[in-house]
Amino acid sequence: MELGATQPAISRHIASLEEQLGTQLFERSRKGVVLTDAGRRFCEAVVTGLGIIRTAIIDASSGPQAEQVVIACSHDASQFFLLPRYEALQSALGENVTVRVLTFQYDARQLPLDPIADLVLAWDPRTGDQDYVVLLGEAVAPVCSPGYAATHAATLERPVSSWGDLTFLQQIRSTAGSVSWDDWFRIVGRPDTGPRYMGFDSYAYVLETAASDRGIALGWRHFVDPYLERGALTLVTDDFVEFHSRYCGYLTERGRNRPVARSCLAILEDCV
Questions:
Q1: What's the CA gap between 73 and 105, in Å, rounded?
Q2: What value does the CA radius of gyration of the chain take, rounded to a whole number of Å?
Q3: Alpha-carbon gap, residue 200 to 197, rounded angstroms
Q4: Is 260 within 8 Å of 97 (Cβ atoms)?
Q5: Which residues pair with 220 in a beta bridge?
Q6: Which of 77, 106, 228, 242 is most buried, most CB within 10 Å of its CB?
Q7: Is the distance from CB of 195 to CB of 160 less than 8 angstroms?
Q8: Terminal alpha carbon distance of the chain
Q9: 80 Cα distance to chain centroid
Q10: Percentage of residues of the chain with pLDDT beyond 70
């Protein structure tokens, strides 16, 4: 095997780890093995930690001529905001600059970002930070698959107060600074009964579940655009609701002293 261990040995290691943590990491059935919610959170934390170590090793071992910029952002922002702009960013910076992405799960304050990262992408800058730019304003609208919209057309045509029988998909723990269903309900009104939620650790899981006809998701403008463009999701309401939160890019103490980091922030601003 790739790990140099037998399947029974790996199973024993997993069982020992679950015992040490006091929680079940995998759900086992005849159909196979999948991560539990706790398992996904543990996996993401381990991946984040290994990413920090990997970045630190590369940074320490790079020669004085090496030029790289490290961007820290949430897993969801990496997928829905940074990845669609990555090629343009790398091209603008030039082939002599390497762009590396360090991801965190919910809140940038989870990570010891200095001196690892040069640039952080997050909802609203940290208090007192001056070197930042606003990349996106926050605007959201409910979205669902065309199939779900057709099945529940009669309900969706009525006011939100009548939506109690629908399933609302959400992150169990939202990215710091972002809006929630409760925020949206405060603007447009709440269902008279419920609402009934289905929760996930990742916004990507929320959108994929919505695309598979299982409920309504809260779609962030710019994040949900690819799903809308290919028809996997459709808007439930006519308009996005604007909020005061802003998605920003800001420089860390390390980034402030590096021209390549300032260039990276300016290029991202131009790519929006």
A1: 8
A2: 21
A3: 10
A4: yes
A5: 140
A6: 77
A7: no
A8: 45
A9: 7
A10: 77
pLDDT of residue 3: 44
Query: Using 50, 70 and 90 to split pLDDT, how confident is the model at 61?
Result: low
The predicted-structure confidence for 173-225, as pLDDT tens digits, reads as follows 665 557 889 999 999 999 998 889 998 878 888 999 999 999 999 998 888 88
> DSSP letters of the chain?
-TTSS-HHHHHHHHHHHHHHHTS--EEEETTEEEE-HHHHHHHHHHHHHHHHHHHHHHHHHS-TT-EEEEEEEEHHHIIIIIHHHHHHHHHHH-TTEEEEEEEESS-GGGS-HHHH-SEEEEESPPTT--SEEEEEEEEEEEEE-HHHHHHTHHHHTS-GGG-TTSEEEEESSPPTT---HHHHHHHH---SS--EEEEES-HHHHHHHHHTTS-EEEEETTTSHHHHHTTSSEESSSSPEEEEEEEEEEE-HHHHT-HHHHHHHHHHHHH-
pLDDT at 163 over 70: yes
Q: Nearest Cα to 120, choosing from 272, 259, 256, 271? A: 256
pLDDT digits (tens, 9 = 90+) for 80-121: 888 888 889 999 998 889 888 888 765 555 555 445 788 888
Residue 85's CB is within 10 A of a number of other CB atoms, namely 16
Bridge partners (DSSP) listed for residue 32? 29
Q: Which residues contact 191 (CB under 8 A, 6 or more apart)?
A: 160, 161, 162, 163, 164, 166, 185
Question: Exposed, middle or buried, 73 (CB in 10 Å: 0-12/13-18/19+)?
Answer: buried
Q: Which two tokens stand for residue 241?
A: 């609701």
Within the chain, what is the greatest distance between any pair of CA atoms? 64
Question: What dihedral do alpha carbons 69, 73, 75, 81 form, nearest 10°?
Answer: -90
Separation of alpha carbons 254 and 261, rounded Å? 9
